[in-house]
Specification:
The protein contains 3 helices and no strands. It is mostly helical.
Length: about 80
């Protein structure tokens, strides 16, 4: 997992920088990092509550899977296709 995250972070940061105008790259990167870190906190609390309410360990994994699929589809639909 550590190797995967080490490869993912620079890629996501570069994607934010690629799609932001040059004048706002720093601001966009800061906003991205805020929401990323805020998402970690919300996810921990949400998945913990789901596990507690359902008394099942599979429910939080299913919720995380669905959230990742939905967010991926959102990005696929909303982000413009950039061809170099």
């Amino acid at each position: 997992m550590g190797i995967g995250m080490a490869m993912l972070y620079p890629t996501l940061g570069a994607a934010v920088a690629d799609f932001a105008p040059v004048e706002t790259t720093g601001n966009a990167t800061g906003i991205y990092r805020f929401w990323r870190d805020f998402g970690y906190a919300v996810a921990v609390l949400t998945l913990g509550m789901v596990a507690q309410m359902t008394q099942a360990l599979t429910a939080p994994f299913l919720l995380a899977s669905v959230a990742m699929i939905v967010s991926g589809l959102y990005v696929l639909i909303r982000l413009p296709n950039r061809k170099n």
